[in-house]
Amino acid sequence: MAFSFRNKAKPGEGIKASALEDDAPKMTAKEEIVDIAKTVFLAVVITVIFRIFFFQPFNIPSGSMQPNLLVGDFIVVSKGTYGYSRSSLIYPLTRMDVRGHVMGREPERGEIIVFKNARHGNRDYIKRLIGMPGDTVQMKGGTLFLNGEAIKREFLSNETVDCSSSVAATFRETLPDGQSFIIQECRGNAGDNDNTRPMTVPEGHYFFMGDNRDNSQDSRTPQVEFVPRDALVGKARRVAFSVDGNKSKIWQIWKWPSAIRYGRLFDRVE
Fold first, then answer.
1. Taking burial as the number of CB atoms within 10 A of a residue's CB, which of 24, 68, 141, 145 is the most buried?
2. pLDDT computed for residue 9 by the predictor
3. Which of 79, 116, 127, 235 is catalytic?
């Protein structure tokens, strides 16, 4: 049997809306406001939960991780990689007297990690993990020594980047576990961080260094030293956005097209 449906509207008349639309009660202004408020509240709750337990954005304010992370990079950090602790929470929950951490795995040497620096007002720092608990770390003439052995590094090039009015040399450094990454050193810069005493990492702590070896406040300095496990916030994953501050301030949206570093968008942090 065949069925056919015909429009019975008279010539010149438009097709009527469905009965469902005709019968739908109209919301009052008060009801519309309440509905919008519920939607906004739900969106805020979801955002807060997502930020507490999963991912959090951070911006790079200094050149201490050059050449791998640049000033103006906005990165995404995974919160649960190393477990959850007071440092993983958001302010003002970070002020709670909570000890220890739950879930997660141990950090691995060579990973770039965000942590809270208790010696600097619990500010967020981002550095590369170099020394594990029990390791002895030392710098001799700008060369990194781990447990008495010099870390292998290969010269790559001289970069024309701002390095305190000198040229920066880049090297590929390879840690004993096989992790390989690029570091930067300022030519002719022999600072205190290039020659240190042997430092043995205590249990439950880690030793961090910046990839910009001559311009980084890290575990080689009294302002940071050894970082406890509970201070870890998360693992840096990707560059979500990047703006060249020399071309545009972040609030100067009209200058973004020429200031955005398009080649860095969604790059993995390595």
1. 68
2. 46
3. 127
What's residue 2's pLDDT? 45
CATH code given to domain 49-138+205-264:
2.10.109.10
The model's pTM is 0.76
The rounded percent of the chain whose pLDDT value lies above 70 is: 74
Check residue 153 and give its pLDDT. 92
Q: What is the arithmetic mean of pLDDT over 222-246?
A: 91
**Which structure tokens are listed for 214?**
């001559």
For residue 88, indicate whether it is catalytic: no
Neighbouring C-beta atoms of residue 220, cutoff 10 Å = 26
Residue type, 207: F
- Let me know: does 269 contact 181? Beta carbons within 8 Å: no
Tens digits of residue pLDDT in 10-32: 444 443 434 434 455 677 877 77
Residue 140 falls in the annotated catalytic set: no
Q: Which of 64, 87, 216, 219 is catalytic?
A: 64
